[in-house]
Amino acid sequence: MKKELLAVLIAAVIVVLIAGCVGPEKTTGGEETKKTLSWATADPGSYGYRVISGLVDVIKVKVPEYEIAIKPYSSTTAAIKGFCKGESDFVYSADLVFPRLYGFTGPFEGFQSEAKQMPVQTLWVYTMETFLLIPKEKADEIKSWSDLKGKPVYLTPAGYMNHLNIERALRAVGVEPNHVEVDSKFVCKALEEGTIVATALYTTAGTSLPTWGQELMISCKGKLVPLNPSPEELKKLKEAGLQVVEIDAKKVDPEMEGKIYAIPFYFGYHASEKVSEDVVYKILKALEENANNLPNVDPGLKPLAEDVAKFQYLGVKSADPSLVPIHPGLAKYLKEKGLWESDWDNYIAK
Predict the structure, then answer these.
(1) Can you tell me the distance from the alpha carbon of 282 to that of 302, in angstroms, rounded to the nearest whole number?
(2) What is the pLDDT of residues 289-330, one digit of tens each?
(3) In angstroms, rounded to a whole number, what is the distance separating the alpha carbons of residues 295 and 292?
(4) Long-range pairs for 170-174 at CB < 8 Å and ≥24 separation?
(5) Quick one: pLDDT at residue 13?
(6) How far apart are CA 42 and CA 72, in angstroms?
(7) How confident is the model at residue 161 (pLDDT cuts 50, 70, 90)?
């Protein structure tokens, strides 16, 4: 009965939100009600939903002529498909999704005929950073990523974003380990027993570990060390267009020394060119003007808060504008900030 009631409530919310996307309606007095900007995201328990829920108050100040509606879907993929069908104005997505979406491969295979609009680069808000750890006792045996070739490694759950991220990074340096699927509750045990020789892990904004990562650090406290790419591997990563960031190892485990080299990827909320340049520009300015308060919305927004414009610039580079066009509103903002590259002139969405 509870499940049935929940389904009815969700359906009712979706109907209301879809109705809000139609456009302004007349009141009984003949006045127009506000238009609605709807933001498609994953389920209410997701990080993406939490972030946009917190940003709503910041955004709506700059676009008072709009109501802001959050439209949850069962998954990020479902949200993207709904957006492409025209069911929302913005959609939650990561840079890693775009090659599959624009190529209509993977979960988007056969979807091209249903797509009425495509997301273009609009608003980047936070990163996740993927890296590798090994047991301290194997540090003399495994010294760089190349030493993982053919070895059993847990790359986080297959198909998830961090799995795809570390997989593309390893591929860039010519390394293909043997991914072993492990119940995340037992990663420490798998490392201790030798079922795997290394594990991938990730942070949000360089600080926050996922729940299973926190459990891993408790179980394997003081037993793991970073496995960083060698100088030659770092060169290959940069030649492949991948960014590399440094994370203080103590933020992962207080007993861990040194730095962790991690590969970031970017998450954001993206519109089609149907959303006006002015609206997107105003949203970016709202974030900039309220930058000091963004970490209060969520700690994962701290890197965005430190430099809103530079964060957008790095997001654009990560997503490859030759594949995914840049929204005119974002282009205007980056030009104003002196962070526009002339090569991008041909990649502004029209």
Answers:
(1) 20
(2) 999 999 998 888 999 999 999 999 999 998 989 999 999 999
(3) 7
(4) 170/145, 172/236, 172/237, 172/239, 172/240, 172/242, 173/145, 173/146, 173/229, 173/233, 173/236, 173/237, 174/146, 174/236
(5) 43
(6) 5
(7) confident
Residues 134-161: b if buried by 16+ CB within 10 A, e if exposed: bbeebeeebebbebbeeebbbbbeeeeb
> Domains of the chain (ranges plus CATH)?
12-26+33-125+268-347 (3.40.190.10), 127-264 (3.40.190.10)
- Which residues 6+ apart lie within 8 Å of 220 measured at CB? 135, 187, 188, 191, 192
Separation between Cα atoms, residue 316 and residue 312, nearest integer Å: 6
pLDDT digits (tens, 9 = 90+) for 224-248: 999 999 999 999 999 998 999 999 9
Query: What's at 309, amino acid-wise?
Result: A
Q: Give the up-direction half-sphere exposure of residue 54: CA atoms within 13 A in the CB hemisphere.
A: 18
Round to whole Å and give the CA distance between 153 and 336. 45
| 283 contacts: CB under 8 Å, gap ≥ 6 | 59, 62, 63, 123, 329
Here the tokens at position 284 are 């970016």
5's tokens: 């009631």
Contact (CB, 8 A) for 214 and 185:
no
d(CA 139, CA 143): 6
The 3-state DSSP class for residue 260 equals strand
pLDDT tens for residues 104-120?
Answer: 998 999 999 999 999 99
| Confidence label for 22 from pLDDT (cuts 50, 70 and 90) | very low
Q: Which two tokens stand for residue 80?
A: 């993207």
3-state secondary structure of 74: coil
Asked whether residue 187 carries a pLDDT value surpassing 90, the answer given is yes
Q: What letter would DSSP give residue 276?
A: -
At residue 160, the pLDDT reads 84
Task: Please state, in angstroms and rounded to a whole number, the distance separating the CA atoms of residues 61 and 68.
Answer: 11
Alpha-carbon span 41 to 83, nearest angstrom: 10
pTM (whole model) above 0.90: no
Residue with tokens 């933020």: 251
